[in-house]
Known about the structure:
Radius of gyration: 25 Å
Shape: globular
Strand content: 5-15%
Number of strands: 18
Helix content: 25-40%
Number of helices: 20
Largest sheet: 11 strands, mixed
Strand order of the largest sheet: 3-4-6-8-7-9-10-13-14-17-18
Amino acid sequence: MKAISKLWAVAKFGLQLCLALLLALAIWAGALQWAPARAALAGGSLLQTDTGWVQGWRLPGRNVFLGIPYAQAPVGDLRWAAPQPASHWQGTRLALLPKPMCAQPAVPRLRVPQSLAEDCLGLNIFQPANTTGKPLPVMVWIHGGGFVLGSGNFSLAGDLAQQGQVLVVSINYRLGVLGFLAHPSLGVEDGQAVGNYGLLDQQMAIDWVKRNAATFGGDANNITIFGQSAGGTSVCAQLMSPAMAGKFQAAILQSAVCSQNLMQSMPDALRLGEQLAQRLPCKQQGRAQLACLRSQPVEKLLPLLGQVGATSEVPLRPVYGSTVLPEAPDTAWRAGHVHRVPLLIGSTKDEGTLLVALGINQAQDRLAQPLNAAKLQAQDGQEAFTQGVTQYFGAAAVPSLQARYPLAQYGGKGSAALAAVLTDGLFACNAEGLRRAAAAQNLPVFAYEFAEAPAGGLIKDDASGVKLGAYHGAEFASLFYYPFYSLNTEQAQLAADLKSYWSSFARGHRPVAGRAGAAAWPAYTAAQPQVLSLQAKGSSPNHDFAARHQCDFWLGAAGKSSH
């Protein structure tokens, strides 16, 4: 009995402590509604936005505000509708936790858990402390993930904000079926928004940032939007969207695909949307069908895209052919129908290795008995190359790509040859093509290739045997904080340089290193197409990027026929 009494006493004490903490939190939150208390706490982490007061975290060297809503929850009648501005709230909102990730499937190999959340349209703000008092350049980060995965919550930008003296904002936007589905029934209310709900979310977030930048010490007239992979493609889309005229002053595109390869026409998008909707019990027409689609639970919508992983074809993409994106990207860039702002455009040296490694891992995950290293190596030959090329470019492309990327040149490894094809065909030459198009329009352009391989990486428990090198997303370790990366001394210096280049580009629209001895970054022009190779052993400009990645092939008629 004494033992039971002691256990009860401990449990009661713990319960009382929890209740006391909750009461203290409630009192503290309530006190924030009292003006004198609000004034006493003000120090950069208690600020008034145009939708209400927010209380963030006061951390060493920075203030952080998490989960600020920029739009109403896109649920009910707002599912598959243009976003609506966030409602004004009373009192003070505790901006201490991020909004949930927007609804997406789980991809354990990329450390991405499943989310069923639709109330996800929030943004996170990283504000440097101890500033000079001058308005700070603003950088708005748009995450990647194939328009299906990801979240602005993954990119902790406090170091970039503090070291670069910039205001950094990361955003969530609708993904997958909820963000990019096009279907005839969705047009009965607003035919112009069809298929581009995620892009419209991004636009509303940028509008919120522009209205509230000064509150956080930012310069509303000096906003740079930047993103990687699908986030970089989103930046390209915003460069083409008439609604964004004057909304930002510079753009950074990291590993972006700014072409029809990652965007789709409205007719194609509508046909795909009808195919997907056939799997749902919504056979009505018009508004009745829209009501039925909106009534479907999220868990029934996510599986419509099938087996989703980073190696799958991007099933749903931004749609051109409406007021949001009037023209195909190639057409818009040739005609100069893009916003005239300075651009920083680049890719990583070994983009394709991540896709190949993920493909092998995901194939292993589907096997009852995964293959050992010896069996994996035995399969890493011509058949693996042929299957990969067929998946990404179609069977007709196999002969020409096999001749151009002979396995003998890659130690007989199909995975290495395929990685080179994907690096060049999907990313490197897309970046080069965009730089050429921008230079032809006399836009200021700066080019880079990130050539450093950080320790650790995006793939959890990688068993592929693929040498990743400077893979797709390798620059994350230099721009943001991720706990699964580790940098040596030289790589840490490269990370500091990268933050200086990115933040100085945001400040004065020219990337400049913040230390003596760091590489000067020349502009990219048609006459001098210089690309800065970013690496720990010493960054330097080079002129052979296009030749190394066979861009004349990929950007010519032969390459386009392989897409």
